[in-house]
Known about the structure:
This protein is of the alpha+beta class.
Amino acid sequence: MLKPFPALHRLPVIRSFTRVVLRKMSSTPSPKPPKFISVEGSDIHSRSKPDGLRFSLVSYNILAQVYVKSSLFPHSPSPSLKWKARSNAILSALKSFGADFLCLQEVDEYDTFYKENLQNFGYSSIYMKRSGQKRDGCGIFYKHDCAELVLEEKIEYNDLVSSIQDGATSFDDEYKDGLSVKQNLEPKNGSESQKAPEDLGDPSDPNVRLKRDCVGILAAFKLKDPPHHVIIVANTHLYWDPEWADVKLAQAKYLLSRLGQFKMLVSDRFECAPQVIVAGDFNSTPGDMVYQYLTSGNSSSAPAFECLEELPIPLCSVYAFTRGEPPFTNYTPGFTGTLDYILFSPSDHIKPISFLELPESYSPDIVGGLPNNSYPSDHLPIGAEFELIKE
């Protein structure tokens, strides 16, 4: 599964907001592109020169076109749901960020649209399509004048099924009885709960329960300035269903296990201590077990199953570290909350120095729910700028 490349020549649960009166916004002008806001009080910005290399990363669930139907987004202006309008709006937004790395989820027109168009903006890319009949997937786009891809690994969360059959995963009695841990997360109306109807099969069968066709990407990059500095960027999209919290937790644990192994491989192969950044749509709010596990290594209740031989990496959310988690990154009339995160492994050699601004709930470009003429997805982009401190 590993693909080597030639050497270089890159909190408490957030409640849903009160529903608002729906209205059409057919003539609303596009909002100004979001800016990266400096971390308040950071001494980095008080110096004339940075301590080290700076690079930026944006994570964005762009809403796969295959899931866009007027019946699923009745609150959205019809013109804003058309592929031509949405694709142009997404491309314009991605270009405006100017980020060195883009971690995109729900990419379903990779070969026909995003790969070539973003290449024209200076991005190379890697892509992982979801399993089964799913048409979307995850992509990491990186500026080739900033970084060189040296190693990548693809994650199929369906591999958890094989781990059961191989005896590498154990289940408790509650799980065997077909019960699952429930999260305090409302079903999403017009979002993934309606995007892709599934035949879930027998939910008490772990072989069925874990086969959710979700994927992720692990990638190691050599930064070109300074040369030979290596960072790891991971991008993922976890399962959506709030009733299946145990499955999402299993995916999160598998992600960190694979990430830990990947980091050791990169460290040994390139004789370095790579910094780690994990981004994606985790379909979990800050009070959920997945968030608690990713940011502390613990969950609020005993997990239904545990992956053995995992190598967890300590992670911290950029927004929690700098300004507090935003009140929402997903905004529809049926659900409003934070589901998307950029996580980094804290060390003395990396620190976030800015974050991508997010609109307020009362913004006229937001009221009524997403997507709309101003925002082409039901999710908002999040982002951060990091500084690698010279050793």
